[in-house]
UniProtKB/TrEMBL annotation:
Cross-referenced PROSITE patterns: NODB
Highest taxon listed in the record's lineage: Bacteria
Native organism taxonomy: Bacteria, Thermotogati, Deinococcota, Deinococci, Deinococcales
Region described as Disordered: 1-20
Organism, as annotated: Deinococcus metalli
Protein name: Polysaccharide deacetylase familiy protein
Record field: transmembrane: none
Keywords, in A-Z order: Hydrolase, Metal-binding
Length: 385
């Protein structure tokens, strides 16, 4: 079980400002690139990847100022999607994210100006939408209010639970965690482990949704008839609402992973409240449902984190099994860790945008079935009989 840790002494920075590099992390293998001929000058990159059943591509488009009207955004997305589907017949779907060239800061930076998900079967429908004929439910047309992240975005994996507080606070937290881990289930707004009296464990994914990996992940879960809890970053729910709708329509549970994916300890009460409340609002606006579970990025939390989460109606949810998929140790290592820690009441932590999680998921789900452990959502795991 992960242990509550204290912050490093004399770190020289406010907790949450500087994100540590996970020890032993390796660089993920480069994604294959699809080249369009002739080239589209606005297209920054066009990645593609498969899951053993389907292939999905994601194009990043950078538009200069003066060329960012809605009609232009739609047209360039259509150009990328249609040409990619023509260039690579194996593709099942092309997702496009259109950004402002001057402010583009990667996936965790300022929101896209426009996004669209274009399955091959819906290309004609998307083309009609671009030409002004009707609507299209798998597009985001921009316009979300700009927000400022209160601190550095958490870009490393959840490594170990880290509780920030006074000596007395840490002592109380250790006691609370010990009791919770021993008995299992939700206690005082906290969930460290599920009940062990039945062969059920929770399957969870952080950092959702990602426009390249989300269709691959949801496809694997659908084929295995498995439901999971996906902890969604609020800004991602704004930019890719159709993937969040897909989650709910396919029976998955959507949790809160803050709005900007920031480390919360060290922030003011108002900042912590804004991160959780804005994420709740963004998710509920898409799903029409209240959010029940929350996971703090990095596993970093404090008494203030827990207090605000309770005020927002959230149960703070941790994990028992982190195989380190974001460290890229290799598929065999990830699979071995997952299988060796599989047990009733467990909470498995994976990431929807970690390539090795996609690679090993199919086999892990098969092993869980063989061992008679049902993988499901957090709420189903803790639900009374």
């Amino acid at each position: 079980m992960p242990k509550v840790q204290t912050p490093p002494a004399n770190s020289g920075s406010v907790p949450g400002e500087v994100q540590p590099v996970a020890p032993g992390a390796r660089q993920a293998e480069a994604l294959p690139q699809l080249t369009l001929t002739p080239a589209l000058p606005e297209l920054e990159r066009l990645d593609y990847r498969g899951n053993g059943f389907i292939e999905v591509a994601h194009g990043i488009v950078l538009l200069p100022s003066g060329e960012q009207g809605l009609a232009r955004r739609r047209q360039v997305a259509l150009d990328v999607a249609s040409r990619a589907l023509t260039a690579r017949p194996e593709l099942n779907e092309v997702d496009v994210s259109v950004y402002d060239r001057d402010s583009y800061g990667g996936f965790g930076g300022p929101l896209p100006l426009f996004t669209a998900s274009v399955p091959r079967a819906r290309l004609a429908e998307f083309q009609a939408y671009v030409q002004g004929q009707g609507t299209y439910d798998r597009a985001y047309e921009g316009g979300a209010p700009a927000t400022t992240s209160p601190t550095v975005i958490a870009r490393v994996r959840e490594d170990a639970l880290t509780f920030f507080g006074s000596s007395a606070d840490r002592l109380r937290q250790r006691l609370t965690q010990s009791v919770s881990q021993s008995r299992g289930g939700e206690r005082d707004g906290l969930l460290f482990r599920g009940p062990t009296d039945r062969r059920v464990a929770a399957l969870t994914f952080d950092d959702a949704p990602h426009p390249l990996y989300e269709p691959l992940l949801l496809d694997l879960l659908r084929r295995a008839d498995v439901r999971a809890t996906l902890f969604v970053i609020g800004r991602n729910a704004v930019a890719y609402p159709y993937f969040v709708r897909d989650m709910v329509e396919q029976g998955h549970e959507v949790g809160n992973h803050t709005y900007h994916h920031v480390r919360l300890p060290g922030l003011s009460p108002a900042q912590v409240q804004a991160e959780l409340a804005q994420a709740n609002a963004a998710i509920s606006a898409v799903t029409g449902q209240a959010v029940r579970y929350f996971r703090p990025p990095g596993g970093d939390y404090s008494s203030l984190t827990l207090q605000v989460a309770r005020q927002e109606g959230l149960t703070t949810t941790f994990w028992t099994d982190d195989p380190g998929d974001f460290d890229n140790p290799g598929d065999a290592v990830i699979e071995s860790r997952l299988v060796s820690h599989l047990r009733p009441g467990g909470i498995v932590l994976l990431h929807d945008n970690a390539p090795e999680a996609i690679d090993v998921l199919r086999e892990f789900l098969r092993v869980a079935r063989e061992r008679g452990v049902t993988l499901t959502t957090v709420s189903q795991m803790v639900a009374p009989r």
